[in-house]
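WARN retry 2 of 3 for item q-0093 after timeout on previous attempt; input resubmitted unchanged.
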Amino acid sequence: MKTVWGEIKNQIKTRVPDNTFSLWIKPIVCLETKKGAVVLGCPNRFSKDWVVENYLDLIREKFNAMVDESIDVQFKVQRRKRTPSPATLRPHPDQQILPGMPQKKRSRNFLLNSQFTFDRFIVGQSNEFAYSASKNIALGDPCNYHSLLMLSNTGLGKTHLSQAIGHTILAANPQSRVFYMTAEDFTNEMITSLRTRQIEAFKSRYRRSCDVLLLEEVHFLGGKEKIQTELGYTLDALAQDRKKIIFTSSLPPKDIPQMSKELSSRLTSGLVTTIGGPDYHTRVQILMEKAKEYDVFLSKDVVHFLAGQLKRDVRQMESALKCLKARSELVGARIDMDLAKEVVSSLVSGECSITTEKIRKLVCEYYKVDLDMLSSRSRKKVYSYPRNIYAYLCRKHSDETLETIGKTINRSHSTVVYATELVEKKMKTDRSMKHQVGLLSKRLDETLQ
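OK item q-0093 returned
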């Protein structure tokens, strides 16, 4: 049942804002399974009460859809376990500890997933250039660049390629000092170094003791001026010594809010690649490979049906396969077209049926705004207000990417992110906006019934 709960969390993640998911849903764990019931653990009483009040119906609905029977969902406060000291922590068997640090100072930030290698990456038209560039820089082929920035939405393979570079370099030279981390890890480590008065050791570590820097999610650095400055100096030192630097981001540096021009320039000084969503043929290949990996037998008809319906990213396809496997193992269901349609319906029914065009028409009718004015360059409140509501509803109810949503209103994807966050923030204090958004969301949901 823990596997089922993991899949349900993935499904809920697509239905709620990221910060809401991280705060309330992500910490919940499956504690035990009773006859006809499942017990979920929350970190504290406040969290438990909030989840029961706001998300119990959604969670119960997902469980019933997954196991095809009525499940009583119960919550209890989970007692915190004492965290063992770093010295006693053992890496996951699917992760490889990187060299370049004394044993006692190694941490979870310097681990690579053993599954993320080049030979396990499915290459298609949308990622072929990123794959080739990554492999060239990893193999050290003659080229005039030593840094690589990969841009894509989440779940499209940039982390896989980044870690594959690390694996390849270490396979050729195990003594290479490869540092893999997220921008958030880098930020936290720098802050800790400042507090403990070890900033010089921090600088030396990244500027003189690093051969390869794999830095993920650089969009996290938006607005962090001091961190950007320190990273800029670090990148200058690494570039001067011809070290290899690989970045990943969901946003181009120029679109990251409050990103300095200096750091933006450094991030784009090398090769920049974009990874798009997989095309139909690539999705078929991914599903076939993942099915083998999960030991799930799929007929050709089922594979092609899933490839035609699951268009968002690789994680969505993985979720579908895990759902099929869970239904097959837990209730003995036969994996056929009918079961595939049920699983797809639970994963993408809302997102796929509600299009940006449907949301656009609803918003314009409600606020009495011409369709063309929603995408105009005007910043008047009479147009910007419904435009922001539109962006929020698209992110919540549609399956489109930030870039696609932005194009429908003649804006960048960073503008869509900003508009969504603005609406979420205002709804906490503005009852009128909260009522309007709730009403529009209800109308959209009604179109699916």
